[in-house]
């Protein structure tokens, strides 16, 4: 089994990545006019926030100090800057494209985490959250495809 420091590090990476998603969804909700899309982004931000808190509790239960912020990674930072740029242009397709890219980052982080030898209770949470990230990604992609079809 992977040692606790590695497990805590992995969970903290998921926390940081999820914080990026939570902030990205919140920012999207604040900057779109469509009421249904706004509600979707708010729900997703809240759900991701709940996932963050669940991961933080897991880290504490393992004797670690949970991450409390988003990542400082340049790549993720650029993704959310791209999202903000898309939002300012009020282009729903662009906003959804950038949101999907952010969800791609989350999926990658979760897929990497499930490759690690995790304790059973931690693995169950990570797999469940991976499934949630996949649903978020798929729903954003579906909304983006609908928005594309509408503007064409």
Task: Describe, in plain words, how this protein is organized in 3D.
Helices cover 82% and strands 0% of the residues. It is mainly α and 152 residues long. It has a single domain, classed as Ferritin, core subunit, four-helix bundle (Ferritin), CATH 1.20.1260.10. Pfam families: DUF2383.
CATH class placement: Mainly Alpha
- What distance separates the N and C termini? 52 Å
The total count of strands amounts to 0
Spell the H/E element sequence. Answer: HHHHH
Tell me the number of helical segments per DSSP (H or I, 4 or more residues long): 5
Structural class: mainly alpha
In helices, the fraction of residues equals: over 70%
Beta-sheet strand percentage? under 5%
What does the average pLDDT come to? 86
CATH architecture: Up-down Bundle
Shape: elongated
Radius of gyration: 16 Å
CATH superfamily: Ferritin, core subunit, four-helix bundle
Show unreliable segments.
Answer: none
Biggest sheet overview: none
Q: CATH topology, what is it called?
A: Ferritin
Number of separate domains: 1
Write a short abstract of this structure.
Pfam families: DUF2383. By secondary structure, the chain is mainly α.
Give descriptors for this structure.
152 residues, mainly alpha, Ferritin, 5 helices, 82% helix, 0% strand, elongated
Task: Give the arrangement of secondary structure elements.
Blueprint: H1 4-30, H2 35-61, H3 74-88, H4 92-114, H5 120-151
Helix pairs in contact: 1-2, 1-3, 1-4, 2-5, 3-4, 4-5
């Amino acid at each position: 089994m992977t040692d606790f420091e590695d497990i805590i590090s992995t969970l903290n990476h998921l926390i940081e990545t999820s914080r990026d998603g939570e902030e990205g969804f919140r920012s999207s909700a604040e900057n779109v006019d469509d009421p249904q899309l706004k509600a979707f982004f708010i729900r997703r931000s809240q759900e991701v926030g709940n996932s963050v808190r669940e991961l933080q509790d897991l880290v504490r239960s393992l004797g670690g100090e949970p991450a409390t912020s988003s990542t400082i990674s340049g790549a993720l930072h650029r993704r959310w800057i791209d999202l903000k740029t898309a939002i300012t242009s009020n282009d729903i397709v662009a906003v959804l494209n950038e949101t999907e890219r952010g969800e791609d980052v989350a999926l990658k982080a979760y897929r990497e985490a499930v490759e690690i030898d995790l304790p059973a209770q931690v693995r169950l949470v990570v797999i469940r959250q991976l499934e949630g990230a996949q649903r978020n990604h798929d729903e954003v992609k579906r909304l983006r495809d609908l928005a594309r079809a509408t503007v064409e």
